[in-house]
TrEMBL record:
Keyword Iron among record annotations: yes
Summary of subunit composition and partner proteins: Heterotetramer of two alpha-3 chains and two beta chains (the beta chain is the multi-functional PDI).
Chemical reaction(s) catalysed: L-prolyl-[collagen] + 2-oxoglutarate + O2 = trans-4-hydroxy-L-prolyl-[collagen] + succinate + CO2
Protein name: Prolyl 4-hydroxylase subunit alpha-3
Gene from which the chain derives: LOC113115220
EC number: 1.14.11.2
Major localisation: endoplasmic reticulum
Cofactor: Fe(2+); L-ascorbate
Subcellular location(s) of the protein: Endoplasmic reticulum lumen
Family named by the database record: Belongs to the P4HA family.
Class of this enzyme: oxidoreductase
Keywords, in A-Z order: Dioxygenase, Endoplasmic reticulum, Glycoprotein, Iron, Metal-binding, Oxidoreductase, Signal, TPR repeat, Vitamin C
């Protein structure tokens, strides 16, 4: 699993570098920037249309002039052509004017100008991987939140409750999907041999394509959707539907020999193994081959799970916290103890809106596709869709102020080399980070190449709110925490004996609607030869608000010590 952590936030668009613009689907900020790219394309298209209308107006004027001549003075051509002036104009018009109209390059020049404008913008436009990533984002939301494809097509986020569709969120601004939109989502699933999703999306594409005329901007057609749907049904074992859809396709394409062959094949299969009457074939979502906690994870993304409630547990509380630090006496931090196992604290209003905005804008030029640990290396992964920026050796005043505030509330030194550099994260379309640990769980982790050690704690700041989704779910602890704008979560990743705390397995749930940004200060790094002496258990750390004279941790570097962290 990745040694990095997940976070959430809201972004404000500013100018960004070409590098941060790549892999657009992994960052909502990059998608927002695409709005401005399309506005430029609209300007190019407007110029093209204006030039084309001017060109056609000129042709219309020529047409009108010529037709008026033939309904006027040319009505009796023998008498008219006797006039040498009229005869000259006829010869000149046929030899020169008609040739200029027919062989004019103006149309080519206009379309070439439009294409050149598009070419200049191409570097700022989505690539094929962005279309695929955006489609997978929709399918991810469909799965994790159990959303109806029919609802998504109408711009609604709906689940089936007691047999009826129920909106889990009503966005103030939405749009509907066309047949071609659904076809492309289905095609992405189809190309991945994901026939569970391709069947559902191609069915919607077929429904929407029926009775409508093809548009030149569309990539798919009714025939394409029927063709792909038939094979998708076949791959899911629904031979009857595959046959029915193929027969409908032949009505539109009766000479298609391949479809005729498929029809005979499906008929033979049904003869050999007739379907059981009154027994419908239920489309079943494939089991996950790598995410054993999928069901729990998705349930926690939809609900808060069994999140502890303060009125049920007297050991959970809210208070104003100073940690005995003089810097917090006049403005203590609002602290909420969320959970005891794992020990999880939410600091409300940890940063101001102005500070959050400043950090976001400072991080934008450095945003790159987030990576995860893969053996001894790092790589991108479909289970983490976001962009990250590492604020290395930052001279930024706000970042330094937040660093000091973290130290005041935790007592931990968050300056390198005792902590990693600050990481700012922006999630993408359906952006998420599936269940993972922040601490390394393998000795081959890239974390150890830093010659430091494992991650002791995580401090995660929510730099924005989101409209729906985006919970932080703790899988084994069976609860999730909604995004609290400008708040911060804190937890220990390791037990005091240096072993990882399995209860900290957590995930960033997909964002349904919103722009998630966050900043992560992933645990002070402690070398394997570091000794940690606690005067109280780690689980008692947060009680120091009431006993400020208790020292939480004494961090000593001693390469010869008999530390429990030592290799």
């Amino acid at each position: 699993m990745s040694p990095y952590v997940s976070l959430l936030i809201l972004v404000y668009v500013v100018n960004i570098s070409d590098k941060s613009f790549g892999e657009m689907f992994t960052s909502v900020m990059s998608v927002k920037q695409a709005v401005f790219a399309e506005r430029q394309l609209i300007d190019y298209l407007r110029s093209y249309l204006e030039n084309e209308m001017q060109r056609l107006d000129d042709i219309k004027r020529f047409f009108s002039r010529v037709t008026s001549l033939h309904s006027g003075i040319y009505h009796e051509p023998s008498a008219t052509i006797a006039n040498p002036i009229v005869a000259f104009k006829l010869v000149k018009r046929l030899k020169s004017e008609w040739m200029n109209v027919v062989h004019s390059n103006e149309a080519e020049e206009n379309i070439d100008a439009l294409r050149e404008g598009y070419r200049r913008m191409e570097g700022s436009l989505p690539k094929l991987e962005d279309l695929q990533g955006a489609a997978q984002g929709l399918m991810r939301l469909q799965d994790v939140y159990d959303l109806r494809v029919e609802g998504l097509v109408r711009g609604h986020f709906q689940q089936i409750t007691n047999g009826d569709p129920v909106d889990i969120y009503k966005p103030p601004v939405s749009d509907t999907l066309s047949g071609d939109d659904c076809f492309l989502v289905g095609k992405v699933a189809y190309d991945l041999e994901d026939y569970y999703h391709s069947v559902q999306w191609f069915e919607e594409a077929v429904r929407l394509f029926r009775g409508t005329e093809w548009s030149p901007e569309n990539e798919g057609t009714l025939e394409d959707a029927l063709d792909h749907l038939a094979f998708s049904h076949f791959k899911t074992g629904n031979i009857s539907f595959a046959l029915s859809v193929s027969q409908e396709l032949l009505l539109h394409d009766p000479v298609n020999s391949r479809v005729h062959f498929n029809v005979k094949k499906y008929e033979k299969l049904l003869d050999e193994s007739p379907p059981v009457k009154n027994q419908g074939l239920v489309l079943k979502r494939p089991d996950s081959t790598y995410l054993r906690t999928r069901n729990v994870y998705e349930k926690l993304c939809q609900t808060k799970g069994s999140q502890p409630k303060h009125f049920e547990n007297p050991r959970l509380f809210c208070d104003f916290f100073t940690n005995g630090n003089p810097g917090l006496l006049l403005q203590p931090i609002k602290r909420e103890l969320i959970s005891l196992h794992p020990y999880l604290v939410l600091f409300h209003s940890f940063v101001t809106r102005a500070e959050a905005k400043s950090i976001r804008e400072y991080a934008i030029p450095g945003l790159r596709r987030s990576v995860v640990a893969s053996g001894v290396n790092q790589s991108t992964a479909e289970y983490r869709i976001s962009k990250s920026a590492w604020l290395k050796e930052s001279p930024h005043g706000v970042v330094g102020k937040v660093d000091r505030r973290i130290t005041m509330v935790t007592g931990l030194n968050v300056q390198p080399p005792y902590a990693e550099y600050l990481q700012v994260v922006n999630y993408g379309i359906g952006g998420h980070y599936e269940p993972h640990f922040d601490h390394a769980t393998s000795n081959s982790s890239p974390l150890y190449r830093l010659k430091t050690g494992n991650r002791v704690a995580t401090f995660m700041i929510y730099l924005s709110s989101v409209e729906a989704g985006g919970y932080t779910a703790f899988i084994y602890a069976n609860f999730s925490v909604p995004v609290v704008e400008n708040g911060a979560l804190f937890w220990w990743n390791l037990h005091r004996n240096g072993q990882g705390n399995v209860d900290t397995l957590h995930a960033g749930c997909p964002v349904i609607v919103g722009d998630k940004w966050g900043m992560i200060v992933v645990s002070p790094i402690i070398s394997k030869a570091t000794y940690i002496a606690f005067k109280l258990p780690i689980s008692g750390f947060m009680s120091m608000a009431r006993s400020s004279n208790i020292v939480v941790a004494l961090i000593l570097r001693n390469e010869e010590s008999n530390s429990p962290f030592k290799a």
